[in-house]
């Protein structure tokens, strides 16, 4: 399994997932489909699937165009999200295969939108799995609660995504990492892992490089929203439960002007 990232629009990421044995490929949120189709052609790939994380235009806005460019391509999207161009609706637990060795599991991760799907992707034995989290989980952050509640985001982040294997590579929908880590330090000023990751992320961005992927393990160490489970973090924001802390940290982030 190979994964390539494509910066799109101002700060979005689209992705190409390749089954190396068969050269079959899937694209995640191809908002600028020309970029991905041209890369696929260059590498002699057979584009089979579009995996849409949610209905917002900067993720689903290229679906109709890619269907014109690649006749017969299947477009997957959450059954509760009205995803543009969707041909195959998925629900939590649905499985899709790509080529000989790549398996995709749909995880319902609602809150940012009510039908948001994260795609958990596994390759051959020995390869690290990956998860494409759209706008639910960002590196050191999470999406705004546009269509859901703190309870739902807790379930999506800490239960559904938090229970994935720790080495799982996290590929999110936007390059928001620097601001997220700066905010994380405002919540936990003494967290050395956040300090180190911020310094690394600054160097990456100065060099014009991405900060993806992260891992589930790194997120548990540096993401204030996933750390809302910890009594220490709850105390820092004056709360006594994970959901309450998550709600409070989201409010703080919405008002933060760091």
TrEMBL record:
Catalytic reaction equation(s): an S-(2-hydroxyacyl)glutathione + H2O = a 2-hydroxy carboxylate + glutathione + H(+)
Enzyme class: hydrolase
Record's keyword annotation contains Transmembrane: no
Zinc keyword on record: yes
Lineage: Eukaryota, Viridiplantae, Streptophyta, Embryophyta, Tracheophyta
One GO biological process term: methylglyoxal catabolic process to D-lactate via S-lactoyl-glutathione
A Pfam short name: Lactamase_B
Taxonomic superkingdom: Eukaryota
EC number: 3.1.2.6
Protein name as catalogued: hydroxyacylglutathione hydrolase
InterPro entries cross-referenced by the UniProt entry: Clx_II_MBL, HAGH_C, Hydroxyacylglutathione_Hdrlase, Metallo-B-lactamas, RibonucZ/Hydroxyglut_hydro
Residue span(s) of domain Metallo-beta-lactamase: 11-174
Pathway, per record: Secondary metabolite metabolism; methylglyoxal degradation; (R)-lactate from methylglyoxal: step 2/2
Entry keywords, A to Z: Hydrolase, Metal-binding, Zinc
Assigned protein family: Belongs to the metallo-beta-lactamase superfamily. Glyoxalase II family.
GO molecular function: hydroxyacylglutathione hydrolase activity; metal ion binding
Database matches in Gene3D superfamilies: Ribonuclease Z/Hydroxyacylglutathione hydrolase-like
Cofactor: Zn(2+); Fe(2+); Fe(3+)
């Amino acid at each position: 399994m190979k994964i390539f990232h494509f910066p799109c629009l101002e700060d979005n990421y689209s992705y190409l997932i390749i089954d190396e044995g068969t050269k079959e490929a899937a694209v995640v949120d191809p908002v600028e489909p020309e970029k991905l189709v041209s890369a696929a052609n260059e590498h002699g790939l057979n584009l089979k699937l579009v995996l849409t994380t949610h209905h917002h235009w900067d993720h689903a806005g290229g679906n109709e165009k890619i269907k014109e460019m690649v006749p017969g391509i299947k477009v997957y999207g959450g059954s509760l999200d009205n995803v543009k161009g969707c041909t195959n609706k998925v629900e939590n637990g649905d499985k899709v295969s790509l080529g000989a060795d790549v398996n995709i599991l749909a995880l319902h991760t609602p809150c940012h939108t009510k039908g948001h799907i994260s795609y958990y992707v596994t390759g051959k034995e020995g390869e690290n799995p990956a998860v494409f989290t759209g706008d639910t989980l960002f590196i050191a952050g999470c999406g705004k609660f546009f269509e859901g509640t703190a309870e739902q985001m807790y379930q999506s982040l800490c239960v559904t995504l938090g229970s994935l294997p720790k080495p799982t590579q996290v590929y999110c929908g936007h390059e928001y990492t620097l601001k997220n880590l700066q905010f994380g330090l405002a919540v936990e000023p003494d967290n050395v892992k956040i300090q180190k990751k911020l310094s690394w992320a600054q160097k990456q961005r100065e060099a014009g490089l991405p900060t993806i992927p992260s891992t589930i393990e790194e997120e548990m160490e540096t993401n204030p929203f996933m750390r809302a489970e910890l009594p220490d973090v709850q105390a820092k924001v004056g709360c006594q439960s994970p959901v309450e802390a998550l709600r409070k940290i989201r409010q703080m982030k919405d008002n933060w002007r760091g």
